[in-house]
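yo

u said u wanted the structure for the complex thing, so here. seqs first:
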Amino acid sequence: MRLGLVIDLDVCVGCHACAVSCKEWNASGTTGPLTDYQPYGAEPSGVWFNRIRHFEVGTYPNNKTVNFPMSCMHCEDADCVTVCPTGASYKRAEDGIVLVDQDKCMGCNYCSWACPYGARELDRESGTMKKCTLCVDRIYDQAIPEEERQPSCVLTCPAHARMFGDFDDPDSEVSKVVREREGYVLMPELGYNPTNHYLPPRKHKPIPTDIGADKAGLAGKLKQFVNRMVKR
Amino acid sequence: MHPAFSVIFFTVLSGAGFGLFALIYLADLFKLGGGLPGAYVFWTGVLAIVMVGVGLMSSTFHLANPKNAWRAFSRWRTSWLSREGVLSVAFYPFALAYLGLYWLDMWPVVRHFSGAVATLLAWLTIFSTAMIYASLKTIRHWNTPLVPAAYLSLGHFSGGMILLVVAMLAGVQTLPFVLLSLFQLFVAAFVKVIYYYWIGRLGVGSTINTATGFTRAQVKLLDAGHTHGTFLTQEFGYIVPRLTAVSLRLISMFLAFAVPLVLLYAAMEYHAPMLGVAALVSVFAGLVAERWLFFAEARHVVNLYHGAQRC
Amino acid sequence: MNARIPVEDHSKQEIKYSTCYMCACRCGIKVTLQEGKVRYIQGNRNHPTNQGVLCAKGSAGIMKQYSKAKLSQPLIRKPGSERGAGEFEAIEWEQALDILTNRLQEIRATDPSKLAFFTGRDQMQALTGLWAQQFGTPNWAAHGGFCSVNMAAAGLYTIGFSFWEFGAPDWDYAKYFILWGVAEDHSSNPIKIGLEKLKRGGGKFVSVNPVRTGYSAIADEWVPIRPGMDGLLAMSIVHVLLSRELFDYEFLINYTNAPWLVIQNPGHKDDGLFLRDGNGNPQVWDLEKETFVNGADVGITPALFGDFVAQDGRRLKTAFTLMAERYLDERYAPANVAAECGVPAETIERIALEMAHVAFKEAIELPIEWTDVWGRKHDKVIGRPVAMYAMRGISAHSNGFHSCRAIHFIQMLLGALDGPGNFRARAPYPKPIPPHQLPENNLDIINAPNTALSRPPLGFPTRPEDLVIDEHGNPLRIDKAFSWEAPLSSHGLMHMVITNAVNHDPYALDTLILFMANMAWNSSMNTKNIQDMLREKDPEEPGQYKIPFLVVVDAFHSEMVNFADLVLPDTTYLERHDCISLLDRPISEPDAAADAIRYPLVTPDRNVRPWQEVMVELASRLKFPAFTKPDGSRRFKDYPDFIVNYERSPGVGFLSGWRGKDGDKFLKGEPNPNQWQKYIENQSFFAHHWPDNQKYMRFVNRDYLEVAADAGFVGKVEPIIMQFYSEPLQKFRLAGQGLYDGPQPKDPADRERLARYFDPLPLWYEPLEQQRVDAGEYPFFALTQRPMFMYHSWDSQNVWLRQIMAQNFLYMNARKAADMGLKDYDWVWVESHNGRIRCQLKTMEGTQEDTVWTWNAIGKQKGTWGLKEDASEATKGFLLNHLISELLPEKQGERRLTNSDPVSGQAAWFDLRVKIYKAQAGETGSWPQFDRVKKLPSDHYSRPDVLRYDARREHEKD
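structre next:
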């Protein structure tokens, strides 16, 4: 199995629902708490697994605003795991999820240096690196209703811009949608082989406009209107 | 990259320490300058391993959770950071054996063997330290063989300068040591010049376009999704102003290479240990600046998600 | 090698269902509690509103619950201290209630209008309105007057339902969707769910908005319009549709007043009114019978076009002829509006034609049999799958009422209302046009002591006689709603209350109660001056303030709390009972009538009471008739008891589900003592799903209307005919022209406004403030919106959400900024006719070139909202509000007029024009800055620098 996410940039409105839901679930989850710094002070900050960036593509008036959620890509060739000196970072053989064992991490930050996607954030209070777990503590929890055994971000996304599934299964929803909509990965040139894919905005096909005929002049238009017999 | 003082201190100090150890071993082996007196060899060796030790200690200061530091030896098969740890620790028994046997003046074969192995480990450790940086595809400024070349040459150059001072103090023939230092100075300076030239011409790597997948139009960051800093911006967001970088490069080259060059030239004429000490101080000042720049100038690709156009 | 991942220990957890209140959407939430602490809030999959999803605000509800801004005890302004100095003493509830009861008793027994009660984002207007009505004061309204009344009024006077809560796009069938001026996260989850559905199905999404963020980001086409020009754009689209005869004849003739005959008699009292028979029925010309017939009848063949002469010789035209004459004028040709709208003529024409193509060439037919109100059976429902939605960008202009009507004109022309793929009504709408509810305006009743009003304070006037004015034409309401200045202000004018009360215009108040409304900060125009007004003393009554007694009801330490004389601390939404009722702003969806409740999931850890409990308590103490038994004892034990047992009319109460003694009735039935329990068992909501034959065309759908009449949604089963031509507007216009047979305004300013702006057909005019401000000097339009993750939420002090945004910037088009020599993060001065502010600039592509905008309500006053003094919300965040005046710029010889829509009284937030220039070197930080608000005596919270929230353990660390 190769579990991961598909992010649909065609419908992501950039509402941060996934990011906050992630924060909420994981604050009291396996690697929680997720520390917040200066929560009431000058420069509030904290540990998040999922952040939404907003980009503008093109120039006015042909510009498009692209909202861009990012979390761990659960790469096939995860350098963050390779470089980890303690073995705290690991990629699970059974489902490809990349995790950090909080009991082993020494907080050297090296894995975060190796990650091009900014997926790893150090929790200064615990001294350990934290990252998206793909809600590993939800997706296998038999006590949760089956339809809710999904990452919190996917479950909550109001625009259904996030899909979760097995990329090894060619018939899974994620595999199909990536094929059909030409899903792509970020910074392929680095060769990390990320599992998470992004779907580009759709192109809408033109709608015909050859309807009705323009009639010349106000008077002309008014005169040409003929009352149709519509019976009520 | 955020230039963390503990890491700067560590790499400069332990690099010099390893370099010094290798050089003192070789100097002793080849009886450079007629051969240093035994006590000088011994105490210089001690100095080298103390420098290495202090450097390694300081490197743990940047760990957020040092209680797990011992685990860092476990992943030597894949991690250069782990290798550095394993090698540096492996260095100690051999280095101590070498120095111990030197002090006791016994078992010359074992002593030489230990010294040779320790020297090899010193080189490998410097190389591993450099490879921690050079192996990262996320930071193009580091992802080059020039980085291990620089670490090795600078470690030996700075270690060699210490050795020169030792030689001056020991009153042996200094010319070979001066020539060695001059040679190492030119090699190190050459590597750094090439490095600066090279990072100035990195060409196009990852860009905001490849980072987002929008490759056919201008892409600009509108909002990073957080008003204030995050771990990512604090760790990777540091940008050294262009003018500061250029000035610092000149200053570091001046202190690390130009000043010692003059002083070494003078040292060929006059036997004045103070010249050597002055050169040494200048070299270390220059190297701290060099190492600070090494971090500060490196641009991590994650900055593409925080507004950078290319990295 | 892999660590074992423990799944959660559920043994100490409990799951409860309630309704979110982080914004106005009222989504269903599933709350996991861990030994009384909130572990997880997620969307309820079964809930009609959000279908399992939840927005950022909803998930951040945890941080709301554990906010450091929560009030914890009743407070009274320290005797001898000045109002606004923020010096309070904590008191007990009994004392607070005694003080308030005594004061209210006195007012009620003398002059009930001296009490004003205005509410912010409340979701219980049926209760607050009833309370005011029972008290006997006309001075009640919620915040609709500064939010969305243009949309509500335009819709309810035109199509019988409206944008925002009374309708929703049919995402399942729509193929073309235009979103007009909808800021960010409005109608949060439903719109997001819908847009994805629409796009997945291949539908086209067009966004008309000067700013491309939020929903607009994902539009297939972005139309960066110049602010305030939407009406012109809509009328130009109408022009294109009429020019090419692209309209739905059947729909117009069957369901609208397009064929009704309008009297053409300029200078006379009947000019512009409908020709009516002796029974008041509107007349149409029957093409078959060639005679005038009752336009509401069946079996007629009305003429859509034509000039006619009545039997008495008066000239007549069909409403549609008048409309065609107006909009076919070259004034509205795309080429002639392009420059003003900032939209190329080709784009306007193309969008009109694309819509027409989808409406007429891609129509949907659903095999659903239904019967119309005239008894005719239809074997299918036809959908013209063009849907629209509009909100603040239309609403917050002083020409918004007409602009919104113009948008409804497009929908009517295309026959695209309440059918498959259209904008569809949500129960209890549609209602008669306008709804049959008039505001109380009987002077004797209003003035009578200890007497309830006979009708609610708000309603829908149809003629000058319905205004709430005295015999001299003076307003009877403190906000001057339903006066000549804003005749159709169906939601009141909350933004005028403080200014009017301080000016004693039209009269002085004694007590002002504000509930959940931050009128001392981001909910007021002209904030800085409003704060001064609140401090202003009455020179004629030494020691007394212009507003003598100010009661603030809030759950959090807002800027408003600082100005209170009495603070009543409310509970959070997880701590109280609530009901989201079909009687006011329900959670219905087009396919289901629905309502919902909240009930306490978390026990309050402070000395607070739900405001609805306090209202029931006060109502009982004051012996309001509806709250008192004939023997004088209190009728309702508490709020839950009131909700179950109060009946507005027999069988109709606040909650529509599980009615009847046994809980087997819905919509109507006698009270059920177990109703709360039934709701709790059913995940805190009730939904009645309409059968297929009652889902569409409900304005004339007999089966639906029969149920609606029974449930009290409508008075009786009769067709709801949509109104192109608005006769109520014409009656007010006649009054302005001096031709009305009834009350007429005396002030020339009123006459002129009525004559000009009460046009029975939509017209576009330059927004009122802009008519008086030099566009050369103030070249930019300035707008605000709230970010998605804070939209419509009560604050931004939430620990998680403020990490996303703790400072707002002024956004400007990148090219424009470059032309002006401005760049990112420059500090700039922004100046309007009303004042100036300093803020930090950011440039972007997605902003129309003549527009600047910012995120609203990020800026905070130092010391409020539980934040530390150096919070960047206070030091760098800013409000645009200081630049916006609640009054129009002064004009020689004219009394000061409200900066509002002249028809609906909607606050004209977006009519602002500004100039921008770079601040001097060294001028940094936002300006103006305000005094730091003092800590409350009841505030014992620690504010640690590190927070580690975890429902499983203690979470604070200093």
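The first helix of chain B runs from residue 5 to 29. The radius of gyration of chain B is 21 Å.
cya
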